[in-house]
Amino acid sequence: MAQQKVEIDIQDKGDYKVLVPVGDLDVYTVGSLRDALGKMIEDKTPSVVVDLDGVPFMDSSGLGALMGGVRRLREAGGDLAIACTREQHLKLFTITGFGEGVSIAPTVEEAAKGFRE
Amino acid sequence: MAVKLSLRWKIVGGFGLLLVLIGLLGYVTLSLFSSLRQVQRRVFNDAVPGVVAVDEIVRSYTAQSAAVRGFLLLPSDPLLEQYLAEVSNVEDVVEESRSLFTSSLELELLDDLTQAGEDFQTSVEQDVVPLAEEGKRSLAQATFSQEGAPLILQIERLGRELRNLQREVVLRAEDDLQTRSNQARITLVAVIIGALGVGLLLTILLPRRLSSSLSELVEAARAIGRGDFDQKIDIRSGDEVEELGHRFTEMQGALKRLQQLALQDRELEIAGAIQRNLQQRTMPNTATVRLVPIQRQANLVGGDWYDVDVDHSSVTVAVGDASGKGIAAALMATVALSVLRAERGQGASARRIIERANEALKEATEPESFTTLIYATIDLATGQAGWLNMGHPSPFMLTSNDKDERTDGRPQGYFLEGPRNRALGWFDDPGMAETTIQLGPGDRLILYTDGFLEAKSPDGAIFGENRFAEALIRLAPLDSNELGEELVRDVEHFAAGKLDDDLTMLVIEFQGARLTQETTEGGNPEVRAAKTEN
Which of A60, B73, B84, B147 has the fewest Cβ atoms surrounding its Cβ within 10 A? Predict the structure, then answer.
């Protein structure tokens, strides 16, 4: 069983952090994203934009990690927004309905504007 | 950087060094003996015989002088003979001892001494003795006192000087011997310390280090026996044992991975068993609706499920997909199915069933988990189908004839995009918009899971909706069973046999009569034909 890796780059934008996963987000790699989001909560920086432009493939595990992140970050007083231009992922958000109620925009800055107050 | 030396070279090096030290020890001892012999030779063969010779020469001249004095007091032949005997003796001694003196100063002194002796003898033999024999004894005595006696004093003085020189030779030899023995002692001490050090290394430190390294490995091996693969091995001996330590660490990692894989396999086995137990083993038969399920379980167990129920007037069908993989996904499928069956058994409506399933999934599972599903009901008599799409991929329609007005007579396959709702297990209110459609005779409504769409080729391409639609249209002439199997084969081929997600499909084939009038009570689906380009 191949254990692929996803690299997660973290950028600090002052008010919020940007997580940039590079690689597929699937059952093999989703643990890294979950851990990175958990660390944001531990570090008391619960406002996060996840930039999906470096993610060519995302399955329901990846989507689940993002939605779990939304719930946990909101409980911690922050929010999770998504920067994404990839048709395939946008479609997944539409089909499952997760696109509603979560800020999704083409750029990180626009996505961050949609953080819940 | 630590010097890398193999164990063999450490031992060979240690013993080699020991041998070199022993050789050095032998050399130093031998050279000490040889210098001792040289000193011995200088003292006993040259210096001491030299002193003896000088003493004998001086004694002989003094004896000559005494014999002459005696002769002058009382002339007699024996005294003269004694004198002559001493003269002969002194010549012999001088001749014999010349080789004992080597330095120019010694030879010069010896020459002076013999010269004084010869002068003394000349004075005695040519002046003193003839005067005495002529009876001029007083004159002879005066001459002897005047010429001979000072020469004897000179001889004695030269003899002392020559003897002193020999003593100096002995003293120098002594000093030399002292210096050499000191050097030898220092060398000996160094050699002994070195040999002790090497010996210590070879007999104590090397075995101890070896044994402590091996103990570490033994301890790690015992830990593996207990199932602990995390024992850290830190051996830095720079030799084969360190290499062994590295290999051991690699082995620990491999064993750990193997164990994880075994656990994972076990987990997947359990998940697979759970999921298989959820499947319906027989499909209900109805006069108008044929149901054909097709399922391939992925290695990872994707949490797909389906459920079919028939009552007197309708057939109810659900196809669901729990997010994630493995036991968690299989258990979520169990939760959804249990609620669904229980509520349906109590005669609950589709909306009520979905509501209850959403609540149960929200309560029972992690915020990462969600389930998508389509819950459809088909009227056995009319062929009217209605469904709730909860975040699930849109159903696909394969029509029976090539004159379908919904596709302008084009080939008979398209996605049915109706009003959609949200996935279950995450939202408080997932929505309850329903889609309805009228099935004609031979129409096939295909419900499926995203495993088909998300199948990935080795180079990362996704099977996707277009390939899915094209394949279904191409396979449309086949019987539903074959169609499903062929489609699965296509997808497996595309993914080079490596499916990460389950493939589940339910073909609902309407075999009833065509109604003259379509009934469209709910939301009418929008027809989305598959794109034909690649």
Answer: B73
